[in-house]
Amino acid sequence: MKFQCYIQSSCAISPQHTFQQDIFSEALQTTDTNMLQAWQPSYAGLIPPNSLRRMSKALKMGLAAASQCLAEGGIANPGAIITGTGKGSLQDMEKFIKDIQTYHETALNPTQFIQSTFNAVNGLIALQQQNTQYNNTFVHRGLSFESALLDALLQLSAGKHHVLLGGFDEVTPDQFQIKSHSGWWKQEKIHSAALLQHLSPGTIAGEGAVFFLLANQPGDHPAASIEGMKLLHKPSSHKLDTALQQFLDEHALQPGHIDLLMSGRNGDSNYQHFYDQVAQALPGIPEVSFKPLCGEYDTAHAFGLWLAAQMIKAGKAPQQWFPAGTVFPKAYRTVLLYNQYYGEQHAFILLKKAL
Amino acid sequence: MTIEALKQQLKEQIIEALNLQDTRPADIDDNAPLFGEGLGLDSIDSLELMVLLERNYQIKVEDPREGRKILQSVQSMAEFILAQQLA
C-alpha cells in the first residue's frame, strides 16, 4: 500500500532511556534475565495523582507517552486516537483472574476489570484530553500496531489533519513464565546486547509504549514521512520475496536506494531465515536490529519505527546502542523496516526523510 | 474488636486497597469525609470500598443510598460493621 503521512512528533517509553532523553548520548541498557523491562520515568506531573494510583504499568506508559507526544506536537485534540496492543494491561487482567479464583467469583474489584480492557489506554487519553473524536484500539497480535497505522492512514485520507497513533504492551512475570513453557523465550540466560550473536530457539521478552502524532501535511519540522506499508500472513519464501519486490516497485525503489534496513531480528533460530532472506534481497544495504534494545513483544515494531524516525531526523544513529563493528549508512534518507512475529505476521514499512 | 482497633484496621485496609501512596493511617481523620474533601476519593473508589467490605467483613451493601451513608467516613464505616456483626 502506498501513502504518505508525516510524523509531527513522537514519544517512546522503552527499556532504553528514550523518554525526554537525548538518545544519542544515553548509555545502552541491558539485561541478563531474558526480560527487558521498560525504564519507568517519574509519572508525577504527567498523570493526575488520583488516576495514577490505580494504573498498571501499561496504562501509565501509554498515557504518559501519549500526553508527551501531543505536548511536543502542539496538538491537544487530534482528530483520532488509534492504538494497537497485543495484550493490553496484562497486570490488571492477571489480578482480576486471580481474584475470580480467590473470591469464588464474588467481591470482584471493578478497577482491574475496567482497566484490563484493551481500549483502556485510549479511553484514558480521551478523558484526559477531553477528546470526543474517533477512538479505536486494534488487537491483532503481531500486527496490532500495523493495523492501527493502517486505520490512521485511512483517517488522514478521509480528511483528519492529525491522528494520535500508538502501540503499547507490557510484560509481567506470570506471562513471562507461561510463555517460557511454550518456548517463546530462550531457555538459557543471555546478555541482551549479545542477542543477535546468540542464535538459538526463542528470544528475549520486552515491553514499551510508543506514540506518534501523524499529520497529513508536513508542517514545520516533521521527523520523517511514512510512505507505505505491506502486511503479510504466513508467507511462503517465494511470497515474501515477491511481496518485497512488489513493495519496492510500488515506490519506484531499487534496493540501492535504501539507506538502511531496520529489522526485527531477535536471535530466534526458528525464524532467522525470514530476516536472512530479506537481507539477501537487499545486498550491500546496512542492517541494524531494534530487538536487542526493546525485546520481543506484539507491538515492538512501533519502537523500530520510532527509532528509525529519530535516526532520519538527526541524520545519525545512536551508535553506542549497537555492537562494535556495526556498519552504519552514510545518509539516513530512506529506511525500510521489516518485522515478523513468530513466522505468522510480517510487515514492511517504508520511512523517508520528509522534504 | 473495639471500635478504635477496627478504625485503625479500616484505615490500613483503605490505604492498601486504594493504593493511597504517601498516606499513613494517622493522616486519616476518623470523621473526615472520604469523598470530595478529606481523602478526595471518587466514585470508582466507592465501588472499591464496597468490595473491601464484602471481602474483609462479609458485608454486602445492596442499596446505593445506604452505601452513601456508610461510606461517609471511617467512623461511619466502623459503626456500620460493628452493628452488622452484632445483628
Automatic annotation (TrEMBL), chain A:
It comes from the Bacteria. GO terms for molecular function: acyltransferase activity. Residues 44-187 form the Beta-ketoacyl synthase-like N-terminal domain. Pfam families: Ketoacyl-synt_2. This is 3-oxoacyl-(Acyl-carrier-protein) synthase. The lineage of its organism: Bacteria, Pseudomonadati, Bacteroidota, Chitinophagia, Chitinophagales.
TrEMBL record, chain B:
It comes from Chitinophaga costaii. It comes from the Bacteria. Residues 1-85 form the Carrier domain. SUPFAM superfamilies: ACP-like. InterPro entries: ACP-like_sf, PP-bd_ACP. This is Acyl carrier protein. It holds the Pfam family PP-binding. Gene3D superfamilies: ACP-like.
